[in-house]
Automatic annotation (TrEMBL):
<dbReference type="InterPro" id="IPR004558">
    <property type="entry name" value="Coprogen_oxidase_HemN"/>
</dbReference>
<dbReference type="GO" id="GO:0046872">
    <property type="term" value="F:metal ion binding"/>
</dbReference>
<dbReference type="GO" id="GO:0051989">
    <property type="term" value="F:coproporphyrinogen dehydrogenase activity"/>
</dbReference>
<keyword id="KW-0411">Iron-sulfur</keyword>
<feature type="domain" description="Radical SAM core">
    <location>
        <begin position="43"/>
        <end position="286"/>
    </location>
</feature>
<feature type="binding site">
    <location>
        <position position="143"/>
    </location>
    <ligand>
        <name>S-adenosyl-L-methionine 1</name>
    </ligand>
</feature>
<feature type="binding site">
    <location>
        <position position="65"/>
    </location>
    <ligand>
        <name>[4Fe-4S] cluster</name>
    </ligand>
</feature>
<feature type="binding site">
    <location>
        <position position="52"/>
    </location>
    <ligand>
        <name>S-adenosyl-L-methionine 1</name>
    </ligand>
</feature>
<feature type="binding site">
    <location>
        <position position="62"/>
    </location>
    <ligand>
        <name>[4Fe-4S] cluster</name>
    </ligand>
</feature>
<keyword id="KW-0560">Oxidoreductase</keyword>
<dbReference type="GO" id="GO:0005737">
    <property type="term" value="C:cytoplasm"/>
</dbReference>
<feature type="binding site">
    <location>
        <begin position="110"/>
        <end position="111"/>
    </location>
    <ligand>
        <name>S-adenosyl-L-methionine 2</name>
    </ligand>
</feature>
<dbReference type="InterPro" id="IPR010723">
    <property type="entry name" value="HemN_C"/>
</dbReference>
<comment type="subunit">
    <text>Monomer.</text>
</comment>
<dbReference type="GO" id="GO:0006782">
    <property type="term" value="P:protoporphyrinogen IX biosynthetic process"/>
</dbReference>
<keyword id="KW-0627">Porphyrin biosynthesis</keyword>
<dbReference type="InterPro" id="IPR034505">
    <property type="entry name" value="Coproporphyrinogen-III_oxidase"/>
</dbReference>
Length: 456
C-alpha cells in the first residue's frame, strides 16, 4: 500500500531540531543540579527500574557514529572498566533501593560485544547481584556489532536472560561501507543472525542509516532486500545526523559524496512502501515492526514510550544510567555520568557516584515533557488528560503554541481539534518539527548556532 505522503511538501520543512529522547534535551543539563540533589532524587523515586549500561569501547572508528566511544585494542582497558563498573554498582547499592523491580535492561555502546564472553558474564553477574529482582517479562536487550559476535557470547547473553538483540547493519553496499569505515559483508551479518536464532532469540532489530556517503535509491533497495531475507522483527531506520562540529570522525566523510535531500526522500519513500508491503508497520519517524510485535501493539493502545534507547513499551520507570557518559532519568530529573574516563575513575576512587551534571525538572518542564513525549510516541495528544494531570487549562497555557501549530494544520501534518491534536501519516515523519513547537528552550538558541542535526 502506497503511503499518502507528499514528499515535496515534506522536504521544505527540514531544519535543525532535537530527536527528543529527553525533554529538556541534554544541552540543557548543567552543574547547578548537584550530586546531593541527584542522591536525594535517586532515593525518593519509587518507580520500578530500567537499567542502561554503557560499554564504551570500539576497536576502530565508524565515521558515521555519534556515540560516545573510546577506541582501543588493549585488553587491560576492558578489565579496568569492569572493576570501575563494580565500584559504581557498589556505590549505587548504598545510594538507592536496588531491590525494586527491574522492567528493562539495555547494554549500549560503543561495542558491547567487544567484551568477550567471560567479560560479559562478569558484567551481567555484577548487575544481577546489585539488582536482584528482574520482572519475568523484563525486556533485556543488547546492541550487537556483527563483526564481534560469537556463539560463546550468545550463550552468555541467553543465560543472562537477554531476549532482544539489535544489530548494527547500516548498509550492505561496499562503496558505502568503505566511506564510513565499517566493513561487514552480508555473509557476516547472516552468520550472526543464525547464531541468535539458534538460541531462540525472539526479537531481532536491524539498525539502518540513510543519507550516508555514496548511497542512492538503487543501492539502498539492495540493502533492504538483503535485510528482509534475514527476517528481523523490527527495523530502526535513521536519517544520518552529520554533525562534524561535534564528532571529529565525521570530518573524515567527504560531504560532496552525501546524497542530496531529493535522493534521501526517494530512499525514505521507497523504504516506507517496501517495508509496509513486506508486513512491517510504521512506528513514528524511524521505526518499523511486524504487526504482532509488542512495539506496534503499544502504539495501537496509545501506550508507547520514548527514552534514550528510542521507543519502548516499558513506561513509568526510573532509568539508572551506569558507566561512562550514561544518562539516568527519574520522575523529576535527568542525571549524566562523566564523559571523560579520568574524571569517571577519580570519582569512583573517592567513593562517589561518577555524576557530573543533570537537571531538576520544573513544573513547566514536566508539562512540556508530557506533551512532547505523547506526540513523539503515540502521535496524538488529548488536552483533557494533560489538564487533569497538571491542573491547567491547556488552551490558555499553550495559547501561543496552538497558534503556531495552525500552519502545520493547514499543511495537513496534523488535525487540530477542539480537545486534541492528531498527527497525520505524513506528519509522523515530521514529528520532531511538531514537537519543537512546544519546546520553550529552543527560543534561546541563536540563529545559525550549530546544535542539532536536521529533521530531514
Amino acid at each position: 500500500m502506497q503511503p499518502t505522503i507528499d514528499f515535496k511538501k515534506f522536504a521544505t520543512y527540514s531544519k535543525p531540531g532535537p530527536r527528543y529522547t529527553s525533554y529538556p534535551t541534554a544541552i540543557e543539563f548543567n552543574e547547578s543540579y548537584t550530586l546531593d540533589s541527584y542522591l536525594k532524587d535517586l532515593r525518593e523515586d519509587k518507580s520500578p527500574l530500567s537499567l542502561y549500561i554503557h560499554l564504551p569501547f570500539c576497536r576502530t572508528a565508524c565515521y558515521f557514529c555519534g556515540c560516545n566511544v573510546i577506541y582501543t585494542s588493549k585488553e587491560e582497558n576492558k578489565q579496568l572498566y569492569i572493576k570501575n563498573l563494580q565500584k559504581e554498582l557498589e556505590i549505587l547499592k548504598d545510594s538507592m533501593d536496588t531491590t525494586k523491580i527491574v522492567y528493562q535492561l539495555h547494554f549500549g555502546g560503543g561495542t558491547p560485544t567487544f567484551f568477550n564472553a567471560k567479560e560479559l558474564e562478569i558484567i551481567i553477574n555484577l548487575l544481577k547481584n546489585t539488582f536482584p529482582n528482574f520482572d519475568k517479562e523484563a525486556e533485556i536487550a543488547c546492541e550487537i556489532d556483527p563483526r564481534y559476535f560469537t556463539t560463546e557470547q550468545m550463550q552468555v547473553l541467553k543465560n543472562g536472560g537477554f531476549n532482544r538483540l539489535s544489530f548494527g547493519v547500516q548498509d550492505f553496499n561496499q562503496e558505502v561501507q568503505a566511506a564510513i569505515h565499517r566493513y561487514q559483508p552480508f555473509t557476516q551479518v547472516q552468520k550472526a543472525i543464525e547464531i541468535a536464532r539458534d538460541f531462540d532469540i525472539p526479537s531481532i532489530n536491524f539498525d539502518l542509516i540513510y543519507g550516508l556517503p555514496y548511497q542512492n535509491l538503487e543501492t539502498f533497495k539492495q540493502t533492504l532486500k538483503s535485510c528482509i531475507s534475514l527476517n528481523p522483527e523490527r527495523f530502526a531506520i535513521f536519517n544520518y545526523a552529520h554533525v562534524p562540529w561535534l564528532k571529529k570522525t565525521m570530518r573524515k566523510i567527504d560531504e560532496t559524496t552525501l546524497p542530496n535531500p531529493e535522493e534521501k526522500l526517494k530512499i525514505l519513500e521507497y523504504t516506507i512502501t517496501y517495508l509496509q508491503e513486506a508486513g512491517y508497520k510504521m512506528i513514528g519517524m524511524d521505526h518499523f515492526a511486524k504487526a504482532d510485535d509488542e512495539l506496534f501493539q503499544s502504539i495501537q493502545k496509545g501506550e508507547l514510550r520514548r527514552n534514550f534507547q528510542g521507543y519502548s513499551t516499558k513506561g513509568g520507570t526510573q532509568t539508572i544510567g551506569i558507566g561512562l557518559t550514561s544518562i539516568g532519568e527519574g520522575e523529576n530529573y535527568y542525571a549524566q555520568n562523566y564523559k571523560e574516563m579520568p574524571l569517571y575513575q577519580e570519582s569512583l576512587q573517592k567513593g562517589k557516584l561518577p555524576f557530573c551534571r543533570g537537571i531538576k525538572l520544573s513544573l513547566d518542564d514536566k508539562i512540556r515533557k508530557k506533551v512532547i513525549m505523547q506526540l513523539m510516541s503515540n502521535f496524538k495528544l488529548n488536552f483533557t488528560q494533560i489538564q487533569k494531570d497538571f491542573s491547567i487549562n491547556f488552551k490558555d497555557y499553550f495559547k501561543e503554541e496552538l497558534e503556531n501549530l495552525k500552519p502545520l494544520n493547514e499543511a495537513g501534518f496534523i488535525t487540530l481539534k477542539s480537545d486534541e491534536i492528531l498527527v497525520s501519516e505524513m506528519g509522523t515523519l515530521l514529528i520532531r518539527n511538531i514537537a519543537m513547537v512546544f519546546d520553550i528552550y529552543l527560543k534561546k538558541i541563536a540563529q545559525g548556532q550549530k546544535v542539532f542535526s536536521k529533521t530531514i
